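Summary of Year 1 activities. Much of the first year was spent building the evaluation harness for sequence design. The harness presents a backbone, in tokenized form, and records the residue chosen at every position. We chose the following record to illustrate the format because it has been used consistently in internal testing since the harness was completed.
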């Protein structure tokens, strides 16, 4: 049942409420897989292109063991922009500290600022060779995808104060949000059409566990002469999660009640995660074409799909005009308020933005699609030089990465890759992958965009190394069970069945 917090927990729940509502106002998610593994002999590379066939005749992926994937990226700040050593050099201070110089952070802001965090766990994987021409896949992946983003002028207004915006209207239309947790079950095949052309198709059933999505039809902030902020908002926040937004007499959000009864009963908990009622479909398609024994081209379109959310629905709507106070981060730097007071002020103001709707309207979110184009040259049977373009689409926006790689593969006994990626407004991103086989076990680890320059975080006299550049970081590791070897002999050319 829904439980309302008691008085001793109100402060903790109020903080949670503030974070929750702020999260509603932050932008959309994207999924990203490793470019480094594309030309490695790993079963998981068919997630990037379903036409790719593993070297092993059979592979099995076990829950969590076979693949844990973490991806982080942002396009507007690095470590030194949000952290710095204090005047004594004995500890690290952050952006909200009165002594912190926010100049570098403000200077690095873009018109559309994004922070993306994605993770995926492979729950099960199975690949079976059905002769020379056909390979069949079954995959189950648990995915959590978030994207936080803010308009540049909105952040400048918050951190630098009102002086530069007095009498102006700040456009916040690029504000959008989607936080999704869903399960992806994919069944597909890869088949040789001719001796040079191979195609792959993977259909996916998507089961949504929870989602927060913001629809932004219009949002602006006008700085008045008295330093208050007039907000004109036309927003809809949709929630599919075991929460209840409690409202006051005016219908404004007052608190959050969490339904934790499922954790009291194992059967209820299993039903909640397996029988979500939030269903969707997806599709991956790909091809490989062998121009010669040494040169091949490939292409794929991934994550064409959507989820329709129908369970545990809450609709929050803001279609009104209201006034915020002129409090901002400059007041923290001046010492007139502290960070907790600013957070409380923002929370109280944001409460005015939304009203809790009595409706429970189902809604739909799309999975951002990806386009991959690849070219590979193999000067020898074990060495492949690869070029890979990966474009990610999100509505009318897209993001492009370009990867050059040198890959060394000896059947499914050993595989390694050294990659260079241009992405995230940086051109010094290195990637490295390594996989080797011990009997039936294939163990692998890889990272895209490995940090080359490091900084340090100092606390209580202890120094912790951290990457200086936080634009992008991707890591994947796991262990597969692999059986047999499908690598063809030299006399069996063309070598379209191998990587």
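For this record, the design step produced the sequence shown next.
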């Amino acid at each position: 049942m829904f439980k309302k917090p008691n008085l001793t927990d109100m402060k903790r729940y109020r903080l949670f409420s503030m974070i929750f509502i702020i999260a509603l106002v932050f932008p959309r998610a994207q999924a990203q897989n490793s470019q480094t593994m594309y030309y490695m002999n790993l079963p998981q590379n068919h997630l990037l292109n379903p036409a790719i066939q593993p070297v092993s005749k059979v592979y099995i992926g076990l829950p969590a063991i076979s693949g844990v994937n973490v991806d982080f990226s942002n396009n507007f700040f690095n470590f030194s922009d949000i952290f710095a050593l204090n005047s004594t050099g004995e500890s690290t201070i952050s952006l909200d500290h009165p002594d912190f110089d926010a100049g570098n952070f403000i200077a690095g802001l873009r018109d559309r600022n994004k922070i993306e965090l994605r993770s995926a766990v492979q729950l099960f994987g199975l690949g079976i060779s059905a002769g020379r021409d056909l390979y069949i896949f079954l995959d189950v992946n648990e995915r959590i995808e978030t994207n936080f983003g803010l308009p540049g002028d909105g952040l400048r207004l918050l951190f630098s104060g009102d002086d530069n915006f007095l009498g102006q209207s700040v456009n916040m239309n690029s504000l959008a949000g989607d936080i999704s947790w869903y399960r992806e079950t994919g069944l597909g095949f890869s088949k040789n059409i001719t001796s040079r052309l191979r195609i792959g198709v993977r259909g996916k059933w998507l089961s949504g566990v929870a989602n927060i999505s913001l629809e932004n039809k219009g949002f602006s902030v006008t700085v008045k002469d008295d330093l208050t902020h007039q907000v004109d908002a036309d927003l809809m926040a949709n929630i599919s999660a075991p929460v209840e937004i409690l409202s006051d007499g005016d219908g404004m959000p007052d608190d959050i009640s969490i339904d934790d009864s499922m954790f009291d009963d194992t059967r209820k908990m299993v039903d909640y995660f397996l029988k979500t009622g939030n269903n969707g479909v997806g599709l991956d398609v790909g091809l490989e074409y062998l121009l010669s024994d040494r040169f091949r081209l490939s292409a794929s379109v991934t994550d064409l799909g959507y989820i329709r959310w129908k369970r545990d629905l809450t609709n929050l709507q803001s279609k009104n005009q209201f006034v915020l106070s002129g409090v901002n981060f400059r007041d923290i730097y001046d010492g007139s308020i502290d960070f907790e007071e600013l957070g409380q002020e923002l929370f109280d103001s944001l409460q005015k933005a939304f009203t809790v709707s009595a409706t429970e309207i189902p809604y739909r979110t799309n999975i951002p699609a990806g386009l991959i184009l690849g070219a590979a040259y193999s000067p020898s049977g074990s060495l492949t030089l690869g070029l890979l373009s990966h474009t990610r689409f999100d509505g009318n926006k897209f993001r492009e990465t370009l990867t050059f790689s040198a890959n060394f593969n000896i059947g499914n006994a050993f595989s390694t890759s050294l990659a260079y990626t241009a992405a995230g407004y940086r051109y010094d991103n290195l990637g490295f992958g390594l996989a080797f086989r011990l009997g039936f076990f294939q163990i692998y680890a890889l990272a895209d965009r490995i940090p080359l320059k490091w900084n340090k975080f100092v606390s209580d006299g202890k120094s912790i190394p951290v990457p200086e550049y936080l634009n992008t970081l991707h890591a994947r590791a796991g262990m597969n069970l692999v059986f047999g070897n499908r690598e063809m002999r030299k006399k069996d050319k063309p070598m379209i069945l191998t990587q």
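The CA atoms of residues 327 and 342 lie 7 Å apart. Quantitative recovery figures across the full test set are reported in Table 2.
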